[in-house]
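YM 10:42: Nucleotide-diphospho-sugar transferase domain-containing protein sequence, as discussed on the call
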Amino acid sequence: MNRNTIDSAKNVVQEKITVLIASVVEREAQLKVVLNRLIDQHDLLEIHVVLNWYIGVPEWIKGLAWKVTPHLNPTNKHAHDSIWQLMPGNGYVIICDDDLMYPLDFFDNLIAAIERHERRVVVTAHGSNIVLPAGDYMDARRTYGFSDRQERDIFNDLCGVGCCAFHIDAFGDKQPSLQNFPIPFMRDLYFSLHCAKNNVPIVNVKRPSSWILPLQTLGSTVYEETLNNASLRALKNRVMKEQLLPALYCKNHDGSGQYVLITDYGFDRRLMDKTLQTLDEVSDEQTNIIVFSDELKDYSFNSQGVEAIYDNVKRPVLTQFVTPDERAIGRMGSKVLTCYRFVCGLPNGSKVLMSDADMYFMRDPMKAFNADFDLGVTTRPEPYYYPLNAGIIFMRVTDQLKDYLRFVIENIYTASWPELVSYQKRFGHDPGDKDWNFDQDALCVTYLFADQMKERFGINVVDVGPKYNWCPHSDGTWEQIASGKAKLLRAYHDESVVVLHLKSKLRELVFEGLLP
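YM 10:58: structure's back
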């Protein structure tokens, strides 16, 4: 390591360095090694150690009172996330673990890296990049570990918190706090999410090999716990795909963003290609396209150097992987679950279109948001059994809309919505079956009981009209099918609608080359 870099760091450090460590009682011996390695690295040093599961402060820690402040946490409240309650108001913050052998120039090099990047970043010696399309959290990461040689600074998606540092100025008035870490044992993920939401880059610093080494410990690490705990792993997968990936890859992810959500469960490639191609052509370049798929497909053109299947799409497309457990609920049940949960994770003010994968977009569908609504539905262009078609749904994200969406999600499992159960039975739909009709039944009931939705949830349900989901009747006799196709082709040539819905037999118009 270049000693000039270290010397330059010492010259600029005129501010306090706050070190935050959380340790468990089983690792007292390792904690002693860690503190002995750190305590003499700087004069302007304050080390705060949270002692989880300790009932008293060990005498040897009391002997370090000139630099080390212990904080007893006998019940392990908030676990390792308790350190965020100790954030200082100024200076540098360095976070360490209790199971790593840190180098004697650790602080100097992290601070030098902070200054190289003008105090605008978080620096770390352990981080990962997410490889898209991302399936499982544990398998989707390319990790640059603390013991690996790093020839230059690189940007990462995920930060290893136990060897990271930043200056208070990086976050401004958005300092990390306990409320940013709602679930224990997910510190790296939630901290990386906080960085992404606040546009604070994560930089993995240059270093020699074996710069940091692991200390031998008893018990399992968080990494091992995640591998062996299916529930924890599932939670990490959800936070990664529903929150971190959108924050990293979606444009205007700040409450002003536009999102089109499309579900592809093995749809005919020709239909999916037409849906993506026409949407890409007519929509604003700032509109984010997200595809929910039960296969790890890459829908973007030349994404990350790999040519995608759907090469007519010129903008990035983010894949949301639907897990086997989610998919097992049924086609429409899992569609509602995954898409509605995604919407609940978006910032308020976001505009969302949920679309089927058999659409032909004539004009920009997001113009529907010129109307005033929370939930925009599309009635059918002619009389039918159901007043709506659920292939197109518009949502303006608010807390009230999120409450409604969570209520619908709850009814995937409980069937506790009397009006929905009654409606399902009216058409011979089993309330316990979430494979095909659930989404449309729930949306029809929402529309038919719009006043009740307004009173209960405070949402405004509005019909934006069939021009946003033009699907003439196309089932039945040969004559009825031919009539439906003629009506759709007429709408195409007249350019009188915004979205053509190629459902049922209408999709044959694509297969026959009648819709370019």
